[in-house]
Specification:
The protein has helices spanning 2-12, 23-28, 38-48, 51-57, 71-80, 109-117, 145-158, and strands at residues 60-64, 84-87, 122-126, 133-137, 142-143. The protein contains seven helices and five strands; from the N terminus they run ααααβαβαβββα. A five-stranded mixed sheet has the order 2-1-3-4-5, with helices on both faces. The protein is an alpha/beta fold and 167 residues long.
Amino acid sequence: NVTRKIEEQIDLLRPEDVRSMDYDQAVALGIIRENYPFNDYIDSILQIVDVDKIKKTSLRVAIDPMYGVSQSSLRTILLTCRCDVDVIHEQHDTLFGGRMPAPSADALRLLSNYVVENRCDLGIATDGDADRLGVIDEKGNYLHANVLLVILYYYLLKYRGWKGPCV
């Protein structure tokens, strides 16, 4: 519905009504305001995890951003928690290395092998835009998202004391 309304407004425009402006000039005039939320985002995550407990574990974590955008944020969070971090497929690639950037069991075979060969405690992968997660345990096993959700639910019930239904 929102997109249709925007498209309707665009259709009303005539070419002579559309003006352009230099980006730097628009920033200088305050028409465009740049915002870099990275630090606030990282801080908000670090406030809800037990950083001190993670620091005590001396985890070695391999991450695979699958050529996407999660490398900076994952690495920053894990390094702040004093984890030893290795990264594979860290360079940005709009073609995602020629494969689908979905963190499935098949797609994470390289990460699984890396975790085992390098004696990592954990492997974490995200899809290209970092809205899906794949996890590899220390033995190289892929943990399906449904298993991760059950583990999270158990944690929230038992250790955080949350109550109520889950959908």
